[in-house]
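mind reviewing this fold:
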Amino acid sequence: MTPPPAVPQRAVPQRPVPQRAVPQRAVPQRTAAPAMNRQGRHPQADRPPVGAPQPPATAPPRSGRPALLDAMTEIIRMPAPSETSVLPATRLPVSASASRMARRHDAWRPRFWILFVTFPIVLAATLAQSVQSTGPLGPIVTVLWTYPIIGTLVGLWGAWITRRRLTNAPADDVAAPCPDRLVVVVPTIGRHDTYPALERAVRSYITYLPECFPRLRVDVVIEEGCEAAESIAELGAVSRYIRVVTVPRSYRTPNGTRFKSRANHYVHELRLAQHEDRDDVWILHMDDDTGVGLDTAVSMANFIRRQRAAGADGKHLAQGILTYPRENARNRLTWLADALRPVADVTTFSAFTGNGTPLAGVHGELLLVRASVEAQIGWDFGPDAIVEDAQFALIFSRLHPGRSAWFPGRCYGASPASVRDFLKQRERWAWGLVGLAFNANVPLRDRLFIGYSVLSWMIGPFGHIGFVLLLGAALGSVDTVPITLAVLPIWALNMAYAVWLYWEGLRMNVAVSQRGRRTWWEGLVVIALIPVFALMEGIGGLRGLYRYLRRTENTFVVIAKPA
């Protein structure tokens, strides 16, 4: 390991470790910024990586290295669970299966054959059933089944960009250290039923991320008095990389933000107080049920090194791929339904975020943001914010157009444990996105695509084939011939795209599972159940719309997380 550069013989401020963190309504007091050394770096940037072997307590300081700076690397004793803390221990070893998984991901590309097969079949079937006249359902289905075409075209464009990007990109298969600091932020509600998933996720961070990020810290953010506080404190003792941050009950943001955004803003203010709002510090936002792998670490490190080389033209935000391994799922139906989620990252999010402007929003997992840029935005979006990640993305798009990117690293989440939890999850998303689509504080041009997507979600149940046939029976005719046959290719493309989404999403989720192959029946079942999945998604969306229209008091529902 190359020793850190020498630091001039001057007083270096001790890094503050708050003992109850931030008081009510108060940003942690920033002390005077530390002086630069002769290389133009903050003295704290020259300290050895967290978790690196420490010299014996009696060892003399290295040549040119003040004893005070060596003292800054001492392990801090564990305080009570209600305090912000940095806890001692070591990293965990990387398994051989993780290396095989990383190589498997590196070979993945989107495949389109199912789309090319489905499109002519659907088009031929609809043409065969069509006549020149139309019934009372004609105008209705003409609108409902044609409307999603914009989302279809954007998604296909994003998928093609993803394939081309992966084909032309250099191989991300070398785990080389990255000089920038990585801070992983993991807010958790701290319940007993969410703790097993949190432990799985945090252990993955300290296992794989140090391979590429020796300057790593994992901030587990909990609420004061949460029921799993003691278990989380014990988890923190597993590794020095982990810092447990407790948000006091009395803490209030200036705008009265609540829920997860409040926790994010608290730890954001803590980083400001510790002078981590710098270009060479990156914040990785993760959910408390979502882990990482070796491929995640390698992909992020390569991305950050490219931004360092780009200098002033570097990107400030990037999003990876959220996947769902089979072994993390308790319910096979919800796991199959969640095939839709990873493919969104290689289609719509790749098209927007990957091309510089995340106007389609982002998700809160595997969201990588430069600390100096996050310091400009923060998370204080007000008491009604429950989709804080999407709102952050829209603000970022306005402040830093063209400065976001996409990277192929995966993170590994868990599907809801039951259909009921699935509906609750979709309800919260729809509730928050409808509110964001009508949020006058965000410019209309920045809300247009999210508004279009929300409307597609809301009208989806009314375009469901079951609802259409029931409506037709009530009107005395189930004839679904459109008012013009010119829309039939659009219908066929929309249907073929829906089949492709679930087929390709299932392929992605299977690829990240321990048994990286589909069973013979999974592909057939996921296609056959598309009407069921569409109904599940639609019911959750309508429940969210109903709550928004009733002006119900916002709640941030956290479902149980499978281990």
Q: What stands out?
A: The two ends are 37 Å apart (CA to CA). Confidence is low (pLDDT under 50) at residues 1-91. The longest helix spans residues 488-511.
